[in-house]
Design goal:
Layout lengths: L5 H4 L13 H25 L25 H19 L9 H21 L18 H7 L23 H6 L28
Length: 203
C-alpha cells in the first residue's frame, strides 16, 4: 500500500476550535494507526481466538483491558479494522473521529505510541521531515483533548472501577456512561454516520 502524501491530501486548515491537526502530526498518527493494525492482525494470525494469558506475548491485543482478553477472532478483526478505519480518515484528509468505543480505544493507543514513533521518524528516511513544520506539531495532549468527545474508555484501566462497563453498574448509571461491554464496542455512536458495512477487512 502506497504511503499517503499528507502535504497534498491533508488540509492545512484549522478546525472549528481554531486548532489544527498539522501535517506532521497527521503523518505520525497515521503511522501509529497502521502499525497497530498490523500488530493486531499479527496477533490474530498467531493466536486466533485463544484468550490472552501473558499480555507481553501479544503485539497489540494484550494491551486491551482484561475484560476483552477472551473475545473471539471475529471481534478481534473488527478491533484491528478500527485502526485501518481511522487511518483511512487521515488518508482522505479528515480528522480521525472515532465512531464507536472500539475506535476510541484504538485512537488512544495510537496517541500513546506516537511520541516513540516520532523519534524513529525524524531521521529523514521516510519523507516525514519534508512535510512543512507548523506550530503545534506533535501536540499529543491537544489531540487527546480535541479528538474525543469524552474519555470514558480510559476508565477500563482503573482497577477500582471494575464492572463500570455494565449499564446496570452504579458508577455507570450515576455518570450516564452507557453500555461499554466489549460486545457493544463497535456499535456506532448516536448521531454519527456509520462506516460502510461493505468495507471488509484487509487481512
Amino acid at each position: 500500500m502506497a504511503e499517503p502524501n499528507f502535504a497534498l491530501q491533508f488540509p492545512d486548515v484549522p478546525g472549528k476550535s481554531g486548532w489544527q491537526l498539522t501535517l506532521r502530526t497527521a503523518d505520525v498518527l497515521h503511522t501509529a494507526l497502521c502499525t497497530l493494525a498490523d500488530g493486531a492482525y499479527n496477533d490474530i494470525e498467531a493466536f486466533g481466538g485463544a484468550p490472552v494469558v501473558e499480555a507481553d506475548d501479544w503485539e497489540v491485543l494484550g494491551r486491551l483491558p482484561r475484560l476483552a482478553w477472551n473475545m473471539d477472532s471475529g471481534w478481534r478483526r473488527r478491533f484491528a479494522r478500527a485502526a485501518d478505519d481511522l487511518a483511512a480518515d487521515l488518508e482522505s484528509g479528515t480528522w480521525p473521529r472515532p465512531r464507536c468505543s472500539g475506535e476510541e480505544l484504538m485512537l488512544h493507543l495510537a496517541l500513546a505510541d506516537a511520541p516513540d514513533l516520532f523519534a524513529d521518524m525524524i531521521d529523514g528516511t521516510d519523507g516525514h521531515e519534508a512535510l512543512p513544520a507548523r506550530r503545534g506539531d506533535y501536540d499529543w495532549a491537544k489531540c487527546s483533548e480535541v479528538l474525543f468527545e469524552d474519555s470514558d474508555v480510559m476508565m477500563f484501566f482503573d482497577p477500582g472501577l471494575d464492572g463500570f462497563e455494565d449499564p446496570l453498574d452504579k458508577v455507570n448509571r450515576d455518570h450516564g456512561i452507557g453500555d461499554l461491554r466489549p460486545v457493544r464496542w463497535f456499535d456506532p455512536f448516536a448521531g454519527i454516520e456509520e462506516r460502510d458495512l461493505r468495507r471488509g477487512f484487509r487481512r
